[in-house]
Design a protein that fits this description.
The protein is an alpha+beta fold and 221 residues long. 22% of the residues lie in helices and 29% in strands. The protein has helices at residues 30-33, 81-92, 134-140, 170-176, 201-210, 212-220; strands at residues 11-13, 41-47, 53-59, 65-68, 72-75, 100-107, 111-117, 123-127, 153-159, 162-168, 190-193. The protein is elongated. It starts with 10 loop residues before the first strand and ends with a helix. It is found in: Cell outer membrane.
Length: 221
């Protein structure tokens, strides 16, 4: 469970590894474990027919749903490719005898994170699925500026209406190769680099948390 040490407007500091996972620099098994997100595009192929039967370019909508012939709307967001295959097969089997069905990843949808504070180019950054980590996000924002504190980077994430945050020592990752300090990001995360002064949560972090609802509206578009 998250370790609560400070709260500002339903914000909870957490070292829980189930919430903030260490980024995998070589994601060999990423596709097997990958869970579909909005704007991902898949191809569906029914196996066992002479010329093959399938549906291409099926994109997960912003609501997490896809619309397929016969099945109507199906919620695929959050499912692995195998889980999506099983669900689609189950629905289509009501109308057809399908010996086997495969679901292929065609393209990943864009991910957006907001990099704030003392970086050279703050703002919303569109990240590739293989670069969703704190180091890559700060790099996309031009790196830490001269006043920034790379030892005290803050990562903010919303889960089920609760805002979790964690401090990250990016300096230790860069200089000491401490892999535990490079956390995997999720769509909609905020990365905040504080200045060289002492961090006061209510003054430095809370204002960004108060902007979170507006930011989430932006990244859903």
């Amino acid at each position: 469970m998250p370790r609560a040490s400070a709260k500002v407007e339903n914000a909870v500091e957490s070292l829980d590894e189930s919430i903030f996972k260490v980024a995998r620099m070589r994601p060999e098994r990423m596709l097997e474990e990958y869970r579909l997100m909005k704007y991902d595009t898949i191809n569906i192929m029914a196996i066992g027919f002479p010329n093959g039967i399938g549906v291409n370019d099926v994109t997960v909508g912003v609501d997490g749903m896809v619309r397929l012939p016969y099945t109507g709307n199906l919620k695929l967001v959050g499912l692995t490719l195998d889980e999506a295959r099983d669900l689609i097969h189950e629905k289509l089997s009501r109308y057809f005898k399908l010996p086997e069905l495969n679901v292929y990843m065609k393209s990943y949808g864009p991910r957006k994170v907001y990099v704030m504070g003392n970086v050279n180019a703050p703002g919303i950054k569109e990240m590739g699925v293989d670069n969703m980590n704190v180091y890559a996000a700060v790099s996309a924002a031009g790196g830490v500026d001269r006043k920034g504190r790379s030892k005290h980077v803050q990562l903010i994430r919303q889960i089920d209406g609760v805002l979790y945050y964690r401090e990250i020592n990016l300096d230790a990752f860069v200089k000491k190769h401490d892999m535990s300090q490079n956390i995997a990001l999720e769509d909609g995360d905020i990365v905040y680099v504080p200045d060289s002064g002492k961090i006061i949560f209510s003054e430095d972090i809370a204002p960004y948390i108060n902007l979170y609802a507006t930011y989430r509206t932006i990244v859903r578009d």
